[in-house]
Description:
Structural class: alpha/beta
Helix content: 40-55%
Strand content: 15-25%
Shape: globular
Bound molecules: nicotinamide-adenine-dinucleotide
Radius of gyration: 22 Å
Number of strands: 14
Strand order of the largest sheet: 4-3-5-14-13-6-7-12-10-11
Number of helices: 14
Oligomer: single chain
Largest sheet: 10 strands, mixed
Order of helices and strands: EEEHEHHEHEEEHEHEHHEHEHEEHHHH
Distance between the termini: 26 Å
Amino acid sequence: MANKICFENGQLNVSDNPVIPFIEGDGVGRDIWKNARAVFDAAVEKAYDSQRKVTWLEVLAGKKSFDETGSWLPEQTLSTIKEHLVAIKGPLETPVGGGIRSLNVALRQELDLFACVRPVRYFKGIESPLKNPEKTNITIFRENTEDIYAGIEWEAGTAEVTKVIDFLQNEMKVSKIRFPQTSSIGIKPISIEGSERLIRSAIEYALTNHLTKVTLVHKGNIQKFTEGGFRKWGYELAKREYAKELESGKLVVDDIIADNFLQQILLRPERFDVVALTNLNGDYASDALAAQVGGIGISPGANINYLTGHAIFEATHGTAPDIAGQDLANPCSVLLSGCMLFDYLGWTEVSEKISKAIETTFAKGYFTADLAKGKASYSTSEFAQKVIENL
Ligand code: NAD
């Protein structure tokens, strides 16, 4: 019988037949989801015979949802994901106009998914701008709820910004605003709690996966109390909660200034295992790292709250309207997000099978059009079939 995944004593409790909600996604979501699901089911069957099986439960969001229900993000979808803890999603079309700024942001905020996790690795056969792309094997932990992304800003010329500038100048004695009459102002909150829960998750991930180094990436040299706080609180947390691991050498925590980080990932990427970053720095670094392994279209991602167990795994690309519905899209981003999901459930045999099968498929020269670079290319369904054959 299919069961809900539960979260008990800080751990997921997963039966042999868990129910996992999925959002198919718009545009290429329709092409990639059905093929990815076939790969997932075949890999579970291969790993556990008939002992284990996922029951996939469709929930609606995005354009498909709007067309069927009149709502871009129905309450039912949120409550189903809340109840089942874990979900996987394809890309969603962002509504133009209307109340919702971004469906992805709404989902992250609603479930307080504070860690954006992106493993970045190289697959042999993929074209990369680096000479030795295989040296990049880095997992990003980007803080997802704070920073300049909190959306606290006021537009130049409005009564609101005038009030904020008055307060800064008259009450706080700030004299450094260069053009006070024509400035927009934004606020950057970075908290101890927000930094600690993200950095603790990064350290736990490193220890669980037998990785030694956790690097705090920041701009604390300039932004002393926000970015500098992130660095300071990270070191304090490591000393307080992981003294044994630090002493034994099982864990090494260090830090690097964000601009130097962007140099070092090109020059000495092997220096990093797990990196923890504030929201904006994490946004830039995620795309830079994905691009250097040639994998902007095949990068997996997850947004996780390790304290409640809630997690949404997702293809990181958009709906690709230029190739939607043509069976041309690369399904690897959602396939590798599925690998992260199975790892999260503790079904590591499944994720190993899928990632090895993708490696083999690339090594044998099967690529979708985005990666074929002018050579013969395979459709989404043909590529997925090859992955299933290579499981
Ligand atoms: P996009 O990622 O959809 O497309 C950028 C380019 O990458 C296009 O040339 C596209 O063909 C290609 N591409 C993307 N995914 C691919 C795949 N799986 N296989 C092969 N090629 C692929 O970005 P965009 O054009 O800026 O955005 C289109 C729509 O997607 C917008 O409505 C945007 O809001 C939305 N979007 C959603 C998400 C999400 O839900 N996570 C993320 C980004 C953009």
